[in-house]
Amino acid sequence: MKAAVLTGIGKVEVRDVPRPEIVRPDDVLVRVGAVGVCGSDVHYYREGRIGDQVVSFPAIIGHEGAGVVESVGPAAASRLEPGARVAIEPAVVCGRCDQCLRGRPNTCRRLLFLGTPGQLPGCLSEYIVMPARNCFPLPSGISVEDGALAEPLSIALYSLKVPGERAPEKAAVLGAGPIGLSVLLAARALAPVTVYVTDKIDDRLEAARSAGAAWAGNPDREDIVAEISAREPLLLDTVFECSGDQAALDQAVSLLEPGGRLVIVGIPAPDRVSFDPHKLRRREITVLNVRRQRNCFSEAIRLIADGRLDPRFMVTHRFGLADAARAFELAADYRDGVLKSIIHLP
């Protein structure tokens, strides 16, 4: 079968690789139809690593996938049948460790994630084998491309649950890439919340305004803290940092009211970031980290199907598998107004 293979930093090739086979009784063989290019994929493409997760080339990447069931193992036959369209949840968990038993599968001790160094090959290939529990049927009216958008949307939904029972009322999303825009969409759909958005790319700011941002600004041209503070003198209860940028982290702390919550969703490129400890302690700011998602995948599919959330506007570019390298170049360089590229497989 064909697969898009990361062969070095900044290098993607389409190669012939062995087709996976059903081995375990609950395995499902999926013919992949669509895969989204994610920011974490771009980290591997551009830097060859995320923190201590270093790519060993060659490697198949990609984890935002959906497709059609080709065949199923005997234990999966009661849940899925050939021809079913499914979105793929990329995190394979053990279900037995202390984290899984505490209801924290996203921090499973034995978690294996698609397209992650040392874990599982990605889904940028014609076929993939996954456990049945990782294959979520798509309702009628939901395309395979829509299914590929469920994974980033599930992260956004989880990001809103991390702060606890107190829903955001006045919030900011710093970084309007696909994850940041997904957080904006989810926040607007689930609660009456005022959301301010920042990004350094004007096309993304315009997308945020169209998606319901109360205000959107560019930190390269505007004093973000001053602009938002003028509109919210008592400051914000929650800031979702979705860029991984040190300057954005500093802005986030300055924008928060006493008792406010900083939710770190983005992945910083460097191994260390810093905070002003006096600003944090004097206002008793809570810093929360988001690790992918927890039990939000089916909810993401349902919200798209019900029409409460429509993330389709984020798909700005589509490529065939043969042009996967172009898709990664575009995303890495932020060219041509790209928000989300989807790679379609035949």
Give your account of this protein's structure.
The protein has eleven helices and 20 strands. Helix 11 links the parallel strand 19 and strand 20. Helix 4 crosses helix 10. The protein has helices at residues 39-47, 98-101, 144-148, 150-161, 178-190, 202-210, 224-231, 246-255, 277-282, 297-306, 324-333; strands at 2-8, 11-16, 27-36, 49-50, 53-54, 59-60, 64-72, 85-88, 91-92, 112-113, 127-131, 135-137, 170-174, 194-198, 215-217, 236-241, 256-264, 286-289, 315-320, 340-344. It folds into two domains: 2-152 and 293-344, Quinone Oxidoreductase, Chain A, domain 1 (Alpha-Beta Complex), CATH 3.90.180; 163-289, 3-Layer(aba) Sandwich (Rossmann fold). The termini are close together. The longest helix is centred in the middle third of the chain and has 13 residues, at 178-190. It is α/β, with parallel strands linked by helices. Strands 3, 7, 8, 11, 12, 19 and 20 form a seven-stranded mixed sheet that branches. The protein has a six-stranded parallel sheet with strand order 15-14-13-16-17-18, with helices on both faces. A three-stranded antiparallel sheet has the order 2-1-6, covered by helices on one side. The radius of gyration is 20 Å and the shape is globular.
